[in-house]
Automatic annotation (TrEMBL):
<dbReference type="InterPro" id="IPR006073">
    <property type="entry name" value="GTP-bd"/>
</dbReference>
<feature type="binding site">
    <location>
        <begin position="281"/>
        <end position="284"/>
    </location>
    <ligand>
        <name>GTP</name>
    </ligand>
</feature>
<keyword id="KW-0460">Magnesium</keyword>
<keyword id="KW-0342">GTP-binding</keyword>
<dbReference type="GO" id="GO:0003924">
    <property type="term" value="F:GTPase activity"/>
</dbReference>
<dbReference type="InterPro" id="IPR027368">
    <property type="entry name" value="MnmE_dom2"/>
</dbReference>
<dbReference type="InterPro" id="IPR018948">
    <property type="entry name" value="GTP-bd_TrmE_N"/>
</dbReference>
<feature type="binding site">
    <location>
        <position position="241"/>
    </location>
    <ligand>
        <name>Mg(2+)</name>
    </ligand>
</feature>
<keyword id="KW-0479">Metal-binding</keyword>
<feature type="binding site">
    <location>
        <position position="475"/>
    </location>
    <ligand>
        <name>(6S)-5-formyl-5,6,7,8-tetrahydrofolate</name>
    </ligand>
</feature>
<dbReference type="Pfam" id="PF12631">
    <property type="entry name" value="MnmE_helical"/>
</dbReference>
<dbReference type="InterPro" id="IPR004520">
    <property type="entry name" value="GTPase_MnmE"/>
</dbReference>
<keyword id="KW-0547">Nucleotide-binding</keyword>
<feature type="binding site">
    <location>
        <position position="92"/>
    </location>
    <ligand>
        <name>(6S)-5-formyl-5,6,7,8-tetrahydrofolate</name>
    </ligand>
</feature>
<feature type="binding site">
    <location>
        <position position="258"/>
    </location>
    <ligand>
        <name>K(+)</name>
    </ligand>
</feature>
<feature type="binding site">
    <location>
        <position position="237"/>
    </location>
    <ligand>
        <name>K(+)</name>
    </ligand>
</feature>
<dbReference type="GO" id="GO:0005525">
    <property type="term" value="F:GTP binding"/>
</dbReference>
Amino acid sequence: MNHEKTPYTDDTIVALATATGVGAIAVIRLSGKEAITLSDKIFKTLSGKSLSEAPSHTVHLGTIKSEDQVIDECLATIFKGKKSYTGEPVVEFSCHGSPYIIQEVIKLCLSHGARLAEAGEFTKRAFLNGKLALNQAEAVADLIASDSQAAHQIALQQMRGGFTSEIEGLRQELLNFASLIELELDFSEEDVAFADRRQLEQLLQRIKTTLQRLVQSFSAGNAIKNGIPVAIVGKPNAGKSTLLNTLLNEERAIVSDIAGTTRDTIEETLHIAGVTFRFIDTAGIRDTQDKIEAIGVEKAKEKIKKAQIVLYLYNEKENTTDEVVQFVQENYRKGLKILLLHNKTDNEYIGLSDFDKEIEEKLNHKEQKYDYSQLRISAKEKNNIEALKEILSSYAKELTTTESATIITNIRHLEALQQTLIALDRVEEGLATQLSGDLLAIDIREMLYHLGSITGAVSNDEVLGNIFSRFCIGK
Ligand code: GDP
């Protein structure tokens, strides 16, 4: 279904746009054809002029009244015609932030014919009225949720357009080819070719390069948006909780002398140099008879699979070098950063010891070359923690670097890009084997469908429902 030209629903919606609870100001937002006329019925400007008479983009002081009772003295900001966030008339009342006032004003709007907005409905209208592409609308939610400088930057860039025009441009070019090929079908008797196959090949090549670049940017984008998952592992009592506390500089995880007390995984976040790290504390990773502990062990293995960085804690008294080597061998995979932390080296020389060097030698003698770093620390005495942070920071730089100028962070976009590339391969294959126009057109249409689903040029109600229901009410 193509929503671009569909006139959107006629009703006027209302919702609190600011956070719930007591605040200095609460903004109540109305959007829809009747937003201004409805407001005139409940809001009297101080000047006596109606909002319908006032120009767009103006702010008015006045009172909101329910019958004869004044509910609040507040400001009304008006946006007329299509020149608003939603692309339809909008009024925003900036009231005093009392829950009672908010409730009364919304009730009043409802009694005058508005209905409560659904989650994300304002942004959905902005999309349906052609104000935002779908991926831009999604970036609005990301922007609101962004909690680090890097995540904020990406969301802002995407909300302002990001790769929308690039994708739309390529889609339009492809659409022309699809039309030409389909036109050939009408003249199938005459064996004509309107669509230049060589040009099509070149276009496919350009699309492929662009899409592959975007797909590759996802892993960096994801690390920036959701944080880099870090697993802290080691035997019980290796100092995992202590290290986590030291890094976070506060007592959130429970530190205990009894082996295996950190049974549940705890997730904490830490920001270093504008990047979020998601630390995952786990129970020990030893083989164990203890049932409850065993759940923790399983979890630790799972977490390592999910992690992009793993911090493995060991020390000379409680580990053998073979144990450490085995850990690296068992858990190494391409792309995973392994940092071996020799803990409990309280106030000792911080260079590598013979024990550490033995680990290094053993790992270097393996056929497989492992990518890891080694560092001596004391989680308890906070020795070498700055060096640890520096290593984390350098890992973060690697994990968040991409050659792509635009970065994608949304799994829906990633899937659509991958689907487009699959269809693209089929088109290329079809061209190589001189597949008939009608079959070629089917694969091109499929590419168009997936490309269009990113920006929302093609969409359906289910997809839209899914996207916008994740927004909060009032957005
Ligand atoms: P976990 O089971 O791996 O989470 O280990 P904990 O963080 O609970 O630490 C176990 C014990 O080791 C506690 O008594 C800590 O105080 C102690 N510990 C942790 N790190 C260090 C350290 O760097 N030096 C010393 N001396 N003790 C430590």
